[in-house]
């Protein structure tokens, strides 16, 4: 029986799975992402999880046919590594991936993608229509997108395509992004930055609110918990809907997707409050065909399922390649 390995390398957790030719999971292992002392510690953790998942599946690693990897970035695709990951400590400057994994699995068929590209591969593979033109958009601690156009998954020469969270939406630059630039989508609507945006808006117009703006633990979840009960919270959520719709409209104009599936913690935990305002605004922002906008059916498994789908289909998600 042919078996395939999928790896999801996140800033918080790592997951490795083993699947059969129908993408059914046979073994799975997960652990927290090491914080150092170097990137080699992360590589070793991934290899250990692959061995554990293989053990659960009753196979040895060297019998795997192929492996897909969905990873945090930025990537150096030619070298098969993560370079200076933004959400890990500075001492982790380089995480080798394809070389060590290829050696462990005794296969050259190792496909590396950033996590949102793995996401669109998974969405495409598991969709009933297996569409050639689609987008996977994640709204989580950051914002990113994986794009498939005319059956081709767009990776970019270095593997870092899809960093749509760093599109400039606000030329006035009211908010500064974590990358240091002003006006980026992610600076307003990512889970990490929503609290900062709410605080800035309130500083501009300090109306009465029940939001715990002065609490150092104030979070995006607090904002959404007050929806429908707090006028200021509703105002912030309305503004988020405006920026999210504008960002997605730009993606639609650039790539003409048939369907957009949305995931990430912010969307998964607040689907109506995130997706409904986007859908309601697209008609006034988009001059071409408006795609379906859906919440992903794959939940938190979208990246690891995309990694498996990549291994199965040579990095494409195209089921005709099975």
TrEMBL record:
<protein>
    <submittedName>
        <fullName>ROK family protein</fullName>
    </submittedName>
</protein>
<dbReference type="GO" id="GO:0008761">
    <property type="term" value="F:UDP-N-acetylglucosamine 2-epimerase activity"/>
</dbReference>
<dbReference type="GO" id="GO:0009384">
    <property type="term" value="F:N-acylmannosamine kinase activity"/>
</dbReference>
<dbReference type="InterPro" id="IPR049874">
    <property type="entry name" value="ROK_cs"/>
</dbReference>
<dbReference type="InterPro" id="IPR043129">
    <property type="entry name" value="ATPase_NBD"/>
</dbReference>
<dbReference type="InterPro" id="IPR000600">
    <property type="entry name" value="ROK"/>
</dbReference>
<dbReference type="Pfam" id="PF00480">
    <property type="entry name" value="ROK"/>
</dbReference>
């Amino acid at each position: 029986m042919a078996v395939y390995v999928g790896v999801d390398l996140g800033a918080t957790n790592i997951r490795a799975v083993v699947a059969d030719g129908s993408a059914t999971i046979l073994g799975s292992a997960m652990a927290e992402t090491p914080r150092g002392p170097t990137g080699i510690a992360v590589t070793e953790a991934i290899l250990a999880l692959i061995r554990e998942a293989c053990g659960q599946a009753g196979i040895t690693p060297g019998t795997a046919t192929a492996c897909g990897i969905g990873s945090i970035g930025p990537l150096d695709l030619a070298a098969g590594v993560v370079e200076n990951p933004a959400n890990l400590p500075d001492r982790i400057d380089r995480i080798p991936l394809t070389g060590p994994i290829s050696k462990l699995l005794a296969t050259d068929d190792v496909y590396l993608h950033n996590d949102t590209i793995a996401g669109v591969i998974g969405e495409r593979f598991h969709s009933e229509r297996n569409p050639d033109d689609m987008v996977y958009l994640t709204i989580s601690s950051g914002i990113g997108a994986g794009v498939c156009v005319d059956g081709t998954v767009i990776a970019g020469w270095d593997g870092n395509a899809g960093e749509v969270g760093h599109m400039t939406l606000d030329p006035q630059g009211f908010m500064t992004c974590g990358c240091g630039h002003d006006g980026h989508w992610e600076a307003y609507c990512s889970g990490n930055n929503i609290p900062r945006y709410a605080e800035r808006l309130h500083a501009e117009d300090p109306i009465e609110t029940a939001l715990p703006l002065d609490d150092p633990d104030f979070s995006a979840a607090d904002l959404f918990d007050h929806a429908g009960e707090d006028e200021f919270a509703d105002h912030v959520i309305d503004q988020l809907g405006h920026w999210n719709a504008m960002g997605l409209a730009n993606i639609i104009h650039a790539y003409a997707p048939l369907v957009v599936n949305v995931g990430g913690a912010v969307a998964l935990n607040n689907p109506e409050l995130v997706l409904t305002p986007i859908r309601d605004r697209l008609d006034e922002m988009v001059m071409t065909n408006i795609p379906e906008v859906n919440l992903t059916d794959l939940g938190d498994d979208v990246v690891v399922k995309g990694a498996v789908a990549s291994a199965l289909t040579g990095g494409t998600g195209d089921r005709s390649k099975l």
